# Entry
Amino acid sequence: MHQTVSLSGATAARERRRWRLAVAGMLLSVLIFGSNFVISRHAVLNGLSPHDLLALRFGTAGLLLLPIFLRPGLAKCGGVGWKRGFWLAVTSGFPMTYLMLTGLTLAPAAHGATIGPGTVTLIGIIGGVVLFGAVLSGRLIFGILGVLSGLACLAVAGSTGSTAGTLRGDLCFLGVGLLWGFYPLLIQLWKIDGLKAAAVVSVLSMVYLPFYFLFFFRGFDVAPWWVLLLHALNQGVLNVIIGLWIWGWAAHVLGAASVGRFPPLIPVTGTLLAIPILGEIPGPLQVAGFALIIGGLFIASWRRPGRTPSVAQPSIAHQGEVPAAADHKS
# Structure
């Protein structure tokens, strides 16, 4: 009897440690994804082009994940099939990332960190209702209205701001959200493992590399070697591999109810880091837009945890790449 109680206590303590580690992992992923907007914006403002970052991102991740892609055989496209692989690459690979990085050359990083995840969450909610029979509750509707109001505030601020390209950059971020939002839905619909999906997206996006070297390559001295290495690690390793891996594991440990509380921290992180690192001080209308979007995300994603963890649903976490909570996505 005493031995049984001891075993139960040890199991409970182990589960508590696992839960705390999962929370820490989620917070680390939030930091990775939220800071990527700021780091990428800093890169394009200091000599690197979106094309350079694209090549570093998918060249690094694609080569590292190539063995996972090839394991089931080339004909099976990483085990998901070429048709599904194509749509995964469109929604989370080169097209989406190109829009994100182009937007960061035109608009503040805080806009990207807010508009992208906000749009992704809206699509996740609508997709959950249409594809998976989720209930569109009053709380979700209220959260959606908050996000839409915040996006409208940013649109007005961008159209009347001193920078002519801000509105175009915001439209790029809107395109990011529209593409990126379908990625976790497809992952959930097709029940694809997150790391396998990342391998498919990264390897297929390497098709861009020949075009990069033919038309956009400016030489390896475009920046110091350590700068190129830093951005290769941030783009290809931290965001595509480590961030998604940690997020996916933590999502399974914590369950959908708890995991849904973390994605709204991504725009908070990106917005706050942009102030000291980039000197981006938002105006009153932008602050109102950020607050409405972040508040709407919290309202839409907040769930009361149940007594037993459940498997999480796909999340916007992949960009930073932007995770509603997710199962295989992250």
